[in-house]
Amino acid sequence: MIRLFAAIEVPELIGHDLARLQTGLPRARWRSLEALHITLRFFGEVDERQADDLDAELARITCPAFDVVIKGVGEFGEGHMSDAVWAGVEANERLNVLAGRCETAARRAGLTSSTRTYRPHVTLAYLRGSPTDRVAGWIRAHNLKTFEPFRVNRFGLYSSRLGHGGSTYRLEREYLIG
Q: What is the pTM of this model?
């Protein structure tokens, strides 16, 4: 079994700009530059046969290249506890179409449908008990930040391995679009 997801890599220059936001929250596990991406579809644990089928279906995806803008920040969590902070992605119909095609590829490969609403973002940190007031202050301090647009002409199939320091990702396949 292999844990897989499809994602768009954040370009290095944008990643360095995002890294400047990665400060000021106690007990935050900031994501490394290599871990910054926009998830298109998380597939979860997949056996090797299904992974091959998924690869074949993802390779069939066609879509024009498009620009993406990372804009604003926010948090995920339940109740008064935040689990993660993220940078948002400006609404983009072509990005939604690409994510939808990844969902279709998953179903064609025999995977179950995702029940989550697609909400594109770049996870910047996972939080372990960061004080609520500090998270709110961090969001206020960075929420108006907008980054330069970048061109999306490819996406990848990544594997994810869980470890003591968090997940590590490896690009397994890359698919050109445009």
A: 0.95
Local structure of residue 35 (DSSP, 8 states)? G
> Which is nearest to 22 in space by CA: 71, 87, 78?
87
Task: List pLDDT tens digits, range 95-135.
Answer: 999 999 999 999 999 999 999 899 999 999 999 989 999 99
Query: Please, which residues bridge with residue 170 across strands?
Result: 159
Half-sphere exposure of 109 (CA within 13 A, CB side): 24
Dmax over CA atoms of the chain, in Å, equals: 47
Fold of 2-176: Cyclic Phosphodiesterase; Chain: A, (3.90.1140)
Model pLDDT for residues 37-48, shown as the tens digit of each residue: 999 999 999 999
Which is nearest to 73 in space by CA: 97, 90, 98, 92? 90
Any idea how long the chain is? 178
Tokens of 14: 């944008």
Alpha-carbon dihedral of residues 145, 151, 154, 156, nearest 10 degrees? -10
Q: Position 101: which residue type?
A: R
Task: Give, in order, the Cα–Cα distances in Å from 86 to each of 105, 127, 155.
Answer: 27, 11, 20
Rounded Cα–Cα distance for residues 92 and 88 (Å): 12
